[in-house]
Specification:
Layout (H helix, E strand, L loop, with lengths): L4 E4 L4 H12 L5 E4 L6 H8 L10 E4 L2 E4 L1 H11 L9 H25 L2 H7 L6 H19 L5 H18 L11 H11 L13 H6 L3 H6 L1 H14 L5
Parallel strand pairs: 1-2
Antiparallel strand pairs: 1-3, 3-4
Helix pairs in contact: 1-3, 1-8, 4-6, 4-7, 4-8, 5-6, 8-11
Length: about 240
């Protein structure tokens, strides 16, 4: 079988969409953890994208690179086995999720900047411990500049809450489109931004887990946290 590599951030909701789709369709691949900023030049060369904005996840195949989590999911639909994930409902839920996750990214970056432990965990490069904090803060600064992640905390939490209110209202029989689909995967990523799922599915170190946790929202939307957990139990294969 031709070699396929998924490059991403294992804790990222966008990368998780791509991984979940590949695993759902039983498509074999190698996962590579991307190191923001430091790894960009090499990834540009591998993806054959010398200019323009570069974001992960990216699926590297013998036939070229597939970028963007939704394109990767649709690619998996086209070549894999099992039920199709991309349905019409995705078009409704994707903008809702993207707005919430854009706000969540601002909160996570701010939390990492305030946590020496999360900073240390976020730098996987071999270097003296004293340099990991400055390196992590430089990385978050670059990500903030790249994505414009500058929402005030209250506004960011309100955006997330609006998406979760819509999710709560949209669920019928446990799903957003009648049966399991990419719409459920996309919106489960918003829940990940208030309380990460169990380490069996997405392993996180303590400081990183805390940076992704919003205690007030997790309590307010405990029913959706339980929905997300059940979704993983029923439909998420252990990552390849």
């Amino acid at each position: 079988m031709p070699k396929v590599t998924l490059v991403g951030l294992h804790y990222s909701p966008w990368t998780q969409r791509a991984q979940w789709a590949l695993d759902h369709h039983r498509i074999g691949y190698t996962f590579e953890h991307y190191i923001p900023v430091v790894g960009e030049l090499l990834l540009r060369a591998r993806a054959r994208k010398p200019t323009g904005r570069l974001s992960v996840p990216i699926l590297l195949t013998p036939h070229g690179a597939v970028s963007d989590s939704i394109r990767i999911a649709r690619h998996a639909d086209s070549i894999g086995s099992g039920s199709k994930l991309y349905v019409d409902a995705v078009e409704r839920w994707l903008p809702i999720a993207e707005s919430a996750l854009d706000a969540a990214r601002a909160l996570v970056l701010r939390a990492v900047e305030a946590s020496p432990l999360a900073q240390e965990e976020s730098v996987s490069l071999p270097m003296p411990r004293a340099l990991k904090g400055p390196t992590a803060r430089f990385g978050t600064m670059m990500l903030r500049r790249k994505y414009g992640a500058r929402y005030p905390e209250q506004e960011a939490e309100e955006r997330i809450a609006e998406a979760l209110d819509a999710l709560r209202a949209g669920l019928v029989g446990g799903y957003l489109a009648g049966d399991f689909s990419l719409a459920d995967i996309v919106m489960s990523g918003v829940v990940q931004a208030i309380k990460p799922v169990d380490d069996r599915y997405i392993p996180l170190q303590p400081g990183t887990r805390e940076a992704w946790t919003r205690p007030r929202l997790a309590e307010r939307y405990a029913d959706l946290v339980a929905w997300r957990d059940q979704l993983f139990e029923q439909h998420r294969r252990q990552p390849s």
